[in-house]
Amino acid sequence: MGPVSDEKVNQYLRQTRDLFGDEIYVELDPTPSGTSSIKSTQKPSYSEFPSDLSLFNQHINQCHKCELGNSRTNFVFGVGDPKASLVIVGEAPGEQEDLKGEPFVGRAGKLLDKILAAIDRSREKDVYICNVLKCRPPNNRDPLASEVSECEPYLIHQINLIRPKLIVALGRVAGKTLLNVDNSLKSMRGQLHDYHGTPLIVTYHPAALLRNPNWKTDAWKDFKWIRSIIDA
Ligand code: URA
After folding, report:
1. Cα–Cα distance between 205 and 191 in angstroms, integer?
2. Whose C-alpha lies nearest to ligand 1, atom 2?
3. Could you give all domains of the chain from N- to C-terminal order, each with its CATH number?
4. Better pLDDT: 123 or 5
């Protein structure tokens, strides 16, 4: 890596202060101690779906495979760089996302944008953002197993097309749904999991960070680890 300009350093410090306040956290070893080795699993493939992301959106955005198709305002396919090295997955669209048809556009989404800027990424640059479910569950309840089993092939196909280096699941619900376990966020954090052959990290949902700002220190450790993987 070449020399880093003063302007870059200042920009980094401004972003970090904006996110995390005046304290600076220095990670000496970017790999958390609980890192597990990656287990590769069979990758499902869906040859009946188009092999272009925007055609795929057109192909599925009138979906009515589950009841959420009747209550949604908009189908929330996903947004970002179709060649991203990082795919970020939340659980399901909320109210703002349902109204706009785009993931993470509410308060939590604004915080996510700041976190991405702090690792020199954005929803247009090297990142793709989507959810396990493409339609909003009523009153933002957790996804039902039946909804996940109808919708997850869409996510898997998106990931197969994007071929990211890393998937980040935001929050316990997204993490346990993708990993098919009933574990706490604490036990899923700090490990490199496997999602159909792609490494996956689970970290805090930005809405949780808004409710508990003291978790931002650990979230920042996670995102520095995430950056070290996608920069490699
Ligand atoms: N929370 C999520 O999990 N996804 C969104 O798109 C918005 C909020």
Report:
1. 16
2. 90
3. 49-231 (3.40.470.10)
4. 123
Longest dimension (CA), the chain: 55
Model's pTM, two decimal places? 0.87
Cα of 143 from ligand 1 centre, angstroms: 12
**Ligand 1 atom index nearest CA of 96:** 7
Our answer on whether the CB atom of 93 is closer than 6 Å to any ligand 1 atom is yes
Atom from ligand 1 closest to the CA of residue 171: 3
Looking at the CA of residue 91, tell me the nearest atom of ligand 1: 3
pLDDT band of residue 22 (cuts 50, 70, 90) is low
pLDDT at position 49 is 97
| Residue the block writes with tokens 């976190």 | 115
| pLDDT over 80 (residue 23) | no
Residue-level pLDDT at 20 = 60
Rounded to the nearest angstrom, the distance between the alpha carbon of 104 and the centre of ligand 1 is: 5
Q: Does the Cβ of 98 fall within 6 Å of ligand 1?
A: no
List of residues 6+ apart from 174 with CB closer than 8 A: 89, 90, 91, 131, 132, 202, 205
Mutation choice for ligand 1 from 131, 132, 136, 209, CB with most ligand atoms inside 8 A? 131
Confidence grade of residue 58 (pLDDT, cut at 50, 70, 90): very high
Whole-angstrom CA distances from 89 to 77, 100, 121, 159, 199 are 11, 18, 16, 10, 13
